[in-house]
Structure formats: C-alpha cells, structure tokens
Amino acid sequence: MHAGAELIRELRDAGMTVELAADRIVVAPRERITEQLRTRLKYRRQEALEHLLLEQRIKGMARRWQYSADELTESLTAAAIDPDGWRRWVDHDERQCAIRGSVFAIATGHA
Fold it and tell me: Per residue in 73-83, pLDDT tens?
C-alpha cells in the first residue's frame, strides 16, 4: 500500500477524520493525534497530500459517473494500492470531461 494511503487509513481506523483543505491536511479531533502519528504525518506529509488529492479527484469522477457507495469504496481502496494507475485513470476522465465540455460549449454557442 502507498505510504500516504497507509497513514491516512491508520488515522481513520483510529476514529479520526482526515480531509484536504487547500494544501493543508485537516485531522479531527486533533486531541486524538498521538505524537508518534503527528511525527509520521509530518514526515509523510507530501505522500499524504498526494493521496488525499487523488481521493478528491476520484470522488469527483464518482459523482460524474454516479458511482454507488460500494463502487466508490472499491475505487478508493484500489487507489490506495495502485495510486499511479488510478491517477492515470482520473487524468483520462478529466481530459474527456474537458473535451466534452468544450464540444458542448461550441455546439450550443456558449464558447
């Protein structure tokens, strides 16, 4: 499992929420973070940020494709194991959305 994903999972398994807000990692409740976890999060900050950003992008794709809750959970689990593969998949989906949006705008005169 990817180092950032593993740390995020560990925090969530300990009953904390972990979210991305701009370029900050927000963990709540803060008082539950041990010094050991805080140190690991500091050390693995970049990997954790990358994983949380990928999660956000997958959730966006899931909304576009109307994933079920089970499909979203399966996708997020798979992304923790193969983040590069899922990053490529989300990149492709986002490019296709941009192309479809541009074609729609031109076809409807909203370009």
Answer: 999 999 999 99
For residue 27, what are the β-bridge partners? 18
Instruction: Please tell me the distance from the alpha carbon of residue 45 to that of residue 66, in angstroms, as a whole number.
Output: 31
pLDDT at 103 over 60: no
Nearest to 8 by CA among 83, 62, 73, 80: 80
| Torsions phi, psi for 29 (to 5 deg) | -75, 140
pLDDT over 70 at 102, yes or no: no
Q: Which bin fits 24, alpha (ψ -120 to 50), beta or left (φ > 0)?
A: beta
Cα–Cα distance, 15 to 23 (Å, whole number): 22
* Residues 92, 106: Cα–Cα separation, whole Å: 21
